[in-house]
Protein backbone atom coordinates (compact mmCIF):
# COMPACT_ATOMS: atom_id res chain seq x y z
CA UNK A 1 0.00 0.00 0.00
CA UNK A 2 2.83 2.40 0.81
CA UNK A 3 4.43 1.76 -2.57
CA UNK A 4 1.25 2.60 -4.48
CA UNK A 5 0.75 5.78 -2.46
CA UNK A 6 4.36 6.80 -2.98
CA UNK A 7 4.18 6.22 -6.73
CA UNK A 8 0.90 8.12 -7.03
CA UNK A 9 2.33 11.03 -5.06
CA UNK A 10 5.47 11.04 -7.17
CA UNK A 11 3.48 11.02 -10.41
CA UNK A 12 1.25 13.88 -9.27
CA UNK A 13 4.24 15.88 -8.08
CA UNK A 14 6.20 15.50 -11.32
CA UNK A 15 3.29 16.01 -13.74
CA UNK A 16 3.43 19.84 -13.79
CA UNK A 17 7.20 19.84 -14.25
CA UNK A 18 6.98 17.45 -17.17
CA UNK A 19 4.15 19.42 -18.73
CA UNK A 20 6.08 22.68 -18.56
CA UNK A 21 9.13 21.02 -20.11
CA UNK A 22 7.08 20.44 -23.27
CA UNK A 23 6.16 24.13 -23.51
CA UNK A 24 6.85 25.81 -26.85
CA UNK A 25 7.14 29.28 -25.31
CA UNK A 26 8.96 31.65 -27.62
CA UNK A 27 9.00 29.26 -30.57
CA UNK A 28 5.87 30.59 -32.20
CA UNK A 29 5.97 32.99 -35.09
CA UNK A 30 3.22 35.40 -36.00
CA UNK A 31 2.49 36.15 -39.63
CA UNK A 32 3.12 39.73 -40.67
CA UNK A 33 0.07 41.71 -41.67
CA UNK A 34 0.58 44.64 -44.00
CA UNK A 35 -1.95 47.27 -44.97
CA UNK A 36 -3.73 47.07 -48.32
CA UNK A 37 -1.40 47.86 -51.20
CA UNK A 38 1.70 46.66 -49.37
CA UNK A 39 3.55 43.38 -49.01
CA UNK A 40 6.05 41.96 -46.54
CA UNK A 41 9.72 42.31 -47.47
CA UNK A 42 11.59 39.61 -45.57
CA UNK A 43 14.98 41.10 -46.43
CA UNK A 44 14.12 44.49 -44.94
CA UNK A 45 11.81 43.08 -42.26
CA UNK A 46 9.09 45.64 -43.00
CA UNK A 47 6.06 46.20 -45.18
CA UNK A 48 6.80 47.84 -48.53
CA UNK A 49 4.41 49.41 -51.04
CA UNK A 50 3.55 47.31 -54.08
CA UNK A 51 4.66 48.86 -57.35
CA UNK A 52 1.76 50.14 -59.45
CA UNK A 53 1.53 50.11 -63.20
Properties at a glance:
53 residues, two-stranded antiparallel sheet, single chain
Question: How is the topology of this model organized?
Answer:
Elements: H1 2-21, E1 38-41, E2 46-49
Antiparallel strand pairs: 1-2
Organism: Litoreibacter arenae DSM 19593
Keywords: Signal
Protein name: Adenylosuccinate lyase
What's the quick description here?
This protein has 53 residues and is α+β, with helices and mostly antiparallel strands.
Number of strands: 2
Number of domains: 1
Distance between the termini: 81 Å
Strand order of the largest sheet: 1-2
What is the alpha-carbon Rg in Å?
25 Å
Strand % is: 15-25%
Can you summarize the main beta sheet?
2 strands, antiparallel
Describe the structure in your own words:
The chain has one domain (1-49). The N and C termini lie far apart (81 Å). The protein has a two-stranded antiparallel ribbon with strand order 1-2. With 53 residues, the chain is of the alpha+beta class. 38% of the residues lie in helices and 15% in strands. The protein has one helix spanning 2-21, and strands spanning 38-41, 46-49. This is Adenylosuccinate lyase. Residues 1-21 form the signal peptide. Keywords: Signal.
Amino acid sequence: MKTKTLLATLALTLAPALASAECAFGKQQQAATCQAGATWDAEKGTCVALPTG
